Amino acid sequence: xxxxxxxxxxxxxxxxxxxxxxxxxxxxxxxxxxxxxxxxxxxxxxxxxxxxxxxxxxxxxxxxxxxxxxxxxxxxxxxxxxxxxxxxxxxxxxxxxxxxxxxxxxxxxxxxxxxxxxxxxxxxxxxxxxxxxxxxxxxxxxxxxxxxxxxxxxxxxxxxxxxxxxxxxxxxxxxxxxxxxxxxxxxxxxxxxxxxxxxxxxxxxxxxxxxxxxxxxxxxxxxxxxxxxxxxxxxxxxxxxxxxxxxxxxxxxxxxxxxxxxxxxxxxxxxxxxxxxxxxxxxxxxxxxxxxxxxxxxxxxxxxxxxxxxxxxxxxxxxxxxxxxxxxxxxxxxxxxxxx
Length: 340
Ligand SMILES: C[S@@+](CC[C@H](N)C(=O)[O-])C[C@H]1O[C@@H](n2cnc3c(N)ncnc32)[C@H](O)[C@@H]1O
Prior knowledge:
This protein has helices spanning 3-12, 29-42, 49-69, 100-110, 122-135, 154-159, 171-184, 222-235, 257-265, 273-280, 293-300, 312-316; strands at 18-23, 74-81, 89-96, 142-146, 163-168, 188-192, 207-212, 236-249, 270-271, 285-292, 330-339. It contains twelve helices and eleven strands. A hairpin with a 7-residue loop joins strand 2 (74-81) and strand 3 (89-96). By secondary structure, the protein is α/β, with parallel strands linked by helices. S-adenosylmethionine is lined by residues 100, 104, 116, 147-149, 152-153, 167-170, 173, 194-196, 213-215, 218. The site of S-adenosylmethionine has 20 residues, from helix 4 and strand 5.
């Protein structure tokens, strides 16, 4: 008997079951189709052309649904033996929703602190010191820290004597902020909330300085950036400053849909200069500085504070999205705006 007879018998008597978990990224549809096709071909359980069309339509629906809810959702493909005439396999496609707060809760449970570094950003301190000189002392200033995390910036500012309102999405961090503020009797109010939630309301025209550090990397799109800038305009006093950072594509680089979706997955949500311009359109705010964050912080942080964390240099230079590029076409930048 020749070998192909045996192969047919082996394929007929091979039963496969298993599960694949992959990021819920719609732009990866073709890659996922190739993977699944190759996997099933390998076991001699090839999909028919009709089955491939059906698989593709199920896959794209779930990818779009899961990604719309969160870029951290996972696609789950489960397969097991069945009576299906072609592959002899049945499968289900679902997704598990991921969230930033769950992932940070997991960081708190599993990672050694400090999670984001133990030194305030050099650019935050420089901006704060300028305002402090201008207003005759730190005690005259009110600061809003949006997405304050573990208080890496909020605590040093409060220790200098200014009043800090620290808005934070992740409940585990809000608790940490409250505990340290109470223990040290610092002028910090920790507020649990999402800056993008229309129901999150702070007092208008209140702050001299608002900061938002390493937060827009979790945003979904330029509309959310606009909402952030509009809220900063509402909360700042006239002449107040808003310092934030964001990943920007180099001017000569037009990001693809895949680049943008992968940047969201990698906590490095990508914006273009056009996105920034349209987010600022008709808002009473103007950009007064825009510079490379990595270069600024490397040059100005004390040597013992560099790098802030083990992941910081790769992340801020865009290598979490483009791991194979020596010089990725995106970078994290400081943007300083003035409320007019
Ligand atoms: C990478 S951490 C940075 C923390 C801090 N700003 C720092 O630089 O050390 C990002 C923080 O932003 C918070 N965050 C993300 N999206 C937010 C939102 N929409 N509103 C408020 N906080 C948010 C997260 O919970 C997390 O604490």
